[in-house]
Amino acid sequence: MFTHLLTAVSLWIESVIARGGYGGIVLLMALESACIPLPSEVIMPFAGALTLEWIAAQNHRPTLNLFLVALAGAIGCVLGSALAYGIGATGGREAAFRYGRYVLLRRRDLERAERWFAHQGAIVVFVSRLLPVVRTFISLPAGVARMPFISFLVLTFLGSLPWCLALAWLGVLVGGNLERIKTVFHGADALIVAILLVLLLFWIRHHLQGEEA
User: Fold this and answer.
1) For labeling, which of 41, 62, 131, 170 is most exposed (least CB within 10 Å)?
2) CA dist., res. 91 & res. 93, Å (int)
3) Cα separations (Å) of 154 from 78, 81, 176?
């Protein structure tokens, strides 16, 4: 069932890009960066493949430009990330203070995160844009931590552009064999999710040791 779901999502992504071109790329990458887990590992390689004349012809559309594909992806990342940041900055902090105890999040956890982003936020935001899975969700805590907005946008763009360009170029190299890319990256995503789950279990254990909120 999970495989069928991934296939359906991939076909929808390809349809949006084939019809919308650069605008479709911006839309999909914005959704991916707004905490909606669409795989950029499918979006950008397919967009990159459309820079090849024969693949573009198969999809009944003009050939795309590789750099503009990467730029459209990065712009989409910035737009989606700005939305997620805004949600975190306007309501996330108060909601976390109010309801955080139900998910084992204490006030001082959030205050510590805010201090951490104040000192390390630049590195965290930039590096996270180069990581599968993590890149989708980093904007919300950045907003909650009130990282300077302009710095956040600049670092999001700078981190997203090489990621988008690398994936698009991979699509060019692989050409019509995009299924290989999907298989490899879905495996990488699964590994990252497993690591995050292990870290989450350790975090829950720490928070259940009777420490005061």
Assistant:
1) 62
2) 6
3) 8, 11, 34
Q: What is the pLDDT of residue 202?
A: 58
Cα–Cα distance, 33 to 28 (Å, whole number): 9
R_g over Cα of the chain: 19
Cα-Cα-Cα-Cα torsion 41, 194, 32, 118, nearest 10 degrees, comes to: -120
Residue type, 2: F
d(CA 134, CA 106): 22
27: helix, strand or coil: helix
What's the rounded mean pLDDT across residues 87-92? Answer: 80
pTM (two decimals)? 0.72
Half-sphere exposure of residue 139, counting CA atoms within 13 Å on the CB side? 32
Residue 148 identity? P
Tokens of 9: 């999502």
Q: How far apart are CA 138 and CA 135, in angstroms?
A: 6
Residue 179: burial class (beta carbons within 10 Å; 0-12, 13-18, 19+): exposed
Token reading at 124: 């965290």
Cβ 25 vs Cβ 171: under 8 Å: no
Close Cβ partners of 20 (under 8 Å, ≥ 6 residues apart): 27
